[in-house]
Amino acid sequence: MDLNNIKQYAKEADEAEIQVNLLKQQLEILKAGTATDPELTKLQAENTKLKHRLAILNKAIMAQSEEKGLQSILKTLHNLFARAITNACPDIPEAPIDIALSAKFGDYQCNSAMPIANLYKQLGKKISPREISTKILENLPANNLIEKLEIAGPGFINIFLKKQFVLQAISSIFNEGVQPPALKQKKKILVDFSSPNIAKEMHVGHLRSTIIGESVCRLLEYLGHEVLRINHVGDWGTQFGMLLAHLQDKFPDYTIKSPPISDLQGFYKESKKRFDEDEDFKKRAYACVVKLQSFDKDHIKGWKLICDVSRKEFQKIYDRLDIKVTERGESFYQTRMEKIVKELKAGGYLEEDEGRKIMWGDYGNVPLTIIKSDGGFTYDTSDMAAIKHRLEEEKVDWIIYVTDGGQATHFYTLFGCARKAGILNEQIHRVDHVGFGVVLGEDKKKFKTRSGDTVRLIDLLDEGLKRSLDKLKEKERDKVLTSQELQKAQESIAYGCIKYSDLSHNRNHEYVFSFDKMLEDKGNTAVYLLYAFTRIRSIARNANFTSEQLKELAKTNKISLEHEKEWKLAKVLVRFSDVLLKITEDLCLHHLCEYVYEIATTFTEFYDACYCIEKDSSGDVVKIHVGRILLAEAAAMIMERCFDILGLKPVSKM
Ligand code: ARG
Q1: Domain residue spans in the chain?
Q2: Tens of pLDDT along 535-567?
Q3: In this structure, which residue's CA is closest to atom 9 in ligand 1?
Q4: pTM of the model
């Protein structure tokens, strides 16, 4: 049920209720008088209709609490309180519905009474927040998730969850698997991420975009959306002019056989040097751009060769990190750029500025450069063409751009121009720039190698592998694991820790890249979590239960929630959907990292306090607490889901 409609429904339900009562009164009066009045039959019919409407509205509110799988607790509470608040405060139509997780006093809390009291004050009515809270509680509809409510302090309402509700939610995992929260509306979403530039280094900034973008895609796909993963590579523009001119000199027969440009970086540097020093070369380079952009056969051939070399390098990184992304670079938009430029000209959106053609959006004080003074197109032009193609041709509902924070202005200006040109309409579209901070070295300076060069990503991944193997050897795991197991563990840890340390930091901040930190086995790190997970999984294994058996056991055995620590863990587990919904709002994946970490630490508290398998002094099993093993398994299943979104690959032995 649509959250935004719930207040409206509640209001309609009340109006219907009032009318039913009014009609009832009239009916009574009429019954007492002339029983044959034709008005009476009409009124009776209306009365039935209204009662029916009221029933539908109430059912709609209740239906949501019967959703499958792990429903959003915050959403359900929000709906219940929206209904209660609308009834309790009919004269405050804009009453805020503020429900939050409670750190201390209850499980959740409603903080609406204080702001509502202020709104009453503005109307000249003096009502205390505690009085308002009392009224809200009187109007709270019957439900299956609240055990107890308390009014506290100035007027907070503390909400305590029912064990039965939590129990059912967790049991559902064994029948249905870990299900995402029910989707309001399936969306078509384009995530523009990774997007390195051909012939140039794919640097740590692109690594961040790749890691964050991949996780955003995984999250949205898990929620049930249709996701287009797009690699907007820089494969067009001036640098190709110089690369092509250089290629023609160095490998004149490139149209017949592939040149060995294994060192594309070096090749790029050489051509750049010539471009900066040699006027003739520069002219030829510009001529090459013109030829390329008019799709001259030989130029396209050379361009493809260069792109292929880069593409192979990028793919190595993607394969290692298990990244799926479809290349659709700037070149794809050439004809669309020509088209949109015409349209923008015709629409009168372009302004002359020292030979350039610029466009101002409805946001900010930087314009886009649509045509350069030499007549060429820019990064801005390709993004205007791309946003139009995505929204109008591909008809996506939502575009997410993942790049470093430095490009925020570019994207906000782009959105502003697209809005102005009638391409973007935020009533039906959503656009986000998911920015991130720069990567720093351990010396808190720009991330560089010791000799001051930019770090090659492949080298970085290799170092990760080496470091994680060292770590495993330090723990003498090489003595217990087979060489295959060891290699799996090594890769899981190396790539897992690189991804996790990126995702676990608030993406808006800069972040310090440190293998030492990310490979620590304490604290909120991938290593800690992967170990914690393996340990949890081993509990059921030690009791000799297969996952099939656990499924069966869950049908007849109650998950144990009696102990305070069992209850605490269970309440963390049922927050899963709310965490995912929050990330859908702000696209900050560190919330998910904090959440899995909370599961792991709460699990430890539970495991320290509650035996799952009891053994006697000789090590023989005397008791198996199936209810606890089920709770542990539920924790493992939710962690596994989170790992999948974060791109972490747990291994059974490490
Ligand atoms: N290639 C660009 C860069 O390296 C990122 C492209 C991002 N996507 C876009 N549609 N502008 O900075």
Answers
A1: 238-322, 464-646
A2: 999 999 888 899 889 999 999 888 999 999 999
A3: 232
A4: 0.88
